Amino acid sequence: MLNATIISYFSDICQSMGTFLHFTIAILLTFIHQAESRSVFVLKGQDVRQDVQENFKLKELEVFKWRFRSTNIVRCTDTLTVRVSPEYNNRVEFSEGNFSLLLKNIQQNDSGPYTAVVSGDKEKTIIEYLLVLQERVEPPVLTVDSNSTINDTCNVPVTCRVQITSVTSSCNSRTCSQVGGESRGAETSTVPLLSVYVAGGSIICNHSNQVSWAIATKEIVELCPMKSDSS
Ligand SMILES: *[C@@H]1O[C@H](CO)[C@@H](O)[C@H](O)[C@H]1NC(C)=O
Ligand SMILES: *[C@@H]1O[C@H](CO)[C@@H](O)[C@H](O)[C@H]1NC(C)=O
Ligand SMILES: *[C@@H]1O[C@H](CO)[C@@H](O)[C@H](O)[C@H]1NC(C)=O
Ligand SMILES: *[C@@H]1O[C@H](CO)[C@@H](O)[C@H](O)[C@H]1NC(C)=O
Ligand SMILES: *[C@@H]1O[C@H](CO)[C@@H](O)[C@H](O)[C@H]1NC(C)=O
């Protein structure tokens, strides 16, 4: 799944190079890519500010641009004359002081790469952001599967679900260990994460992505009163 995403992400590059790209090369490209471009995760409807490095200054006759695909969102000359593209009127605020761009009310079609470009004798990209729009996650549903295996050590089998995804864990008053269900990628994955753990005397199922989270809880004391009393 993740591998497929990486490969499809780079398929444009592959095609333009006209070469077959082996998966290991795709991985290598991922690392190179990450070195110069950052992902910024934004909840739909929110505003986002994109900065350039501190102390950036334009030299004589240079033009600075924030670019999205083929549109120059904003242009700024070395004399700080600023022009905002009509498409972005009322949607952006540009700071001449530090060249940052505030993009308001992010929608689906705002996703993609934003570059800060300086044109002088040559054109140079000084920074790139990959804007990733995410929706607010849905609350998960946490259920106790059966209490027949709740014994003296208080092992509670629980399942946490969101739509078609579920995780099955065995929890006691201190910790949970996953016993089944879909295993998830790293926390940096853009796929929402479903994790089950114990905190503050409750079993917690946390459904999260980079911009939001929602939980469902069960109090341990209700599941195994005697064990909780003694500990
Ligand atoms: C750039 O300027 C804007 C507006 O003055 C400010 O909100 C933002 O925090 C500044 N960014 C940095 C990195 O200083
Ligand atoms: C994004 O879609 C909205 C309508 O949903 C449209 O008004 C806007 O111009 C589009 N923006 C871009 C950059 O395509
Ligand atoms: C086990 O579950 C049944 C019904 O679901 C409930 O009546 C009973 O009290 C539970 N037992 C314990 C020890 O939680
Ligand atoms: C309680 O159940 C767990 C797994 O269901 C098992 O590993 C453990 O040994 C059991 N403890 C006792 C005291 O029966
Ligand atoms: C749920 O997970 C998110 C992301 O990992 C975290 O920021 C948040 O604090 C967690 N919430 C609870 C109640 O544990």
From TrEMBL:
Keyword Signal in annotation: yes
Superkingdom classification of source: Eukaryota
UniProt name for this protein: Immunoglobulin subtype domain-containing protein
Intracellular or extracellular location(s): Membrane
Alphabetical keyword list: Glycoprotein, Membrane, Signal
Classification via Gene3D superfamilies: Immunoglobulins
Signal peptide annotation: none
GO annotations of cellular component type: membrane
